[in-house]
Every structure is written in structure tokens, then in C-alpha cells.
Amino acid sequence: MGKAELFQWLSFRLGPVQIGPTVLTTWLLMALLTGLAWAVTRRLQVQTPSNWQSVLEATVIAMRDAINDAAPSQARHLLPFIGTLWLFIATANLTGLVPGLRAPTGDLSLTAALALLVFGAVHWYGIRIDGLRAYLRHYLEPNPVLLPFHLLGELTRTLALAVRLFGNMMSLEMAALLVLLVAGFLAPVPLLILHIIEALVQAYIFGTLALVYIGGALQSQAFKKE
Q1: How many other β-carbons are positioned within 10 Å of the β-carbon of residue 168?
Q2: Residue 35 is part of which domain span?
Q3: What integer is the mean pLDDT of 65-80?
């Protein structure tokens, strides 16, 4: 039984909800990332850090610096969410390289769920950092007449976020399949490199857009550059 057939066989229903390969792959990735995080962080050392700890620290520092560039002084608040988005989406995108599996981000249901998380995070961080009154006030600026356009913009950018990642990953997998059908296995290495680069770029873009949306909702003086 192949991997794709195994995941199809393991599909089941929870009431009206169908639990299929995309959800199972997502759960597997969540368990994998949680296990790796626990394994790497359970014995942190200052004097003699392990290679895994050095890689982890370099990754966290790079993400923190990227967040600080877009949202100065807010990396402490935003790093857990944005960093998790980057790591999860990058790993999910690379899942398509495993024979018999497809990237769960090639399923619109998952990208829509991620976009809804970003939609909720925008309002949650905005209210938490700016306060409810100050956050709601920015929807009325520069003129209350623009309120419907602000609300429409919130919905359209959430939809665009979901469709963008879904479309890019689906087209990437289709392009890889077409190249393999035309060229056979004569060019697997360039195709593999292209897939890896595109998967990482799409993860970075999604997380960066989420960061920009959250940053746009923060209007407090603490958020502005010093």
C-alpha cells in the first residue's frame, strides 16, 4: 500500500466533518514540529551549545530581526505567532517532496484556515497592544465615510492571502509533474532545487504579509520606530 493510499484509507468522519489526507498530514506536521521543538530545547546550554541549538538560535534571531524591521519593539509579542507561521508553512510546503504525499498548502481549506488565523490575529494583537478604543478608532481614519471600505479591505485581503498560497503551491506541484512527464528523470535535481526555493519563498511571503497586516493594525506610539 502506497503512502497516498494509506492516507486515503485512514480518512474518516467526525460527524459532518471529513478528516482526509490534508488534515492528517497537517496533524503529522504539528506533531513533528512539536517533537523537534521539545527535543532541541530540553537541554539548552550556554557554554557548550549543541549544533541543533545553534541552528535554532540562529533561526530565532533571524526571525526576530525580520519582525523588528517591520514592527520595531514588537518582536516579543509577534515572534511566537509569525515564527510559527513561517516554520509550519515552510515545512508544509516541503512535504510535497516526499514521495506519495502532497503539500497540504495545496489544499484551499488549509490556506483558508491559515488566512482566518491571520485575520483573527490582526484584531487580537491590535486590541491587545493599542487597546479596544484606539484600535477601533483607526477604522474611522481619516474619515468615517471610509469605514465600509476598511471593512471590505479586511475581507478581501484575507481571501487573497488564502488563494495566493493555495494557487502558488498547486501550480508549483503541477509544473513539477509536467516537467517530469516531459523530461522524465533527466532533470530531477534542478526541479528539486526549484521546489525547495519556491516553498521557502512562499512561506516567507505569507508570514511577511501577515506581519504587515498586523503592523498596519497597530497605531500606538510604542509601535513606531524610535
Answers
A1: 20
A2: 27-39+51-223
A3: 82
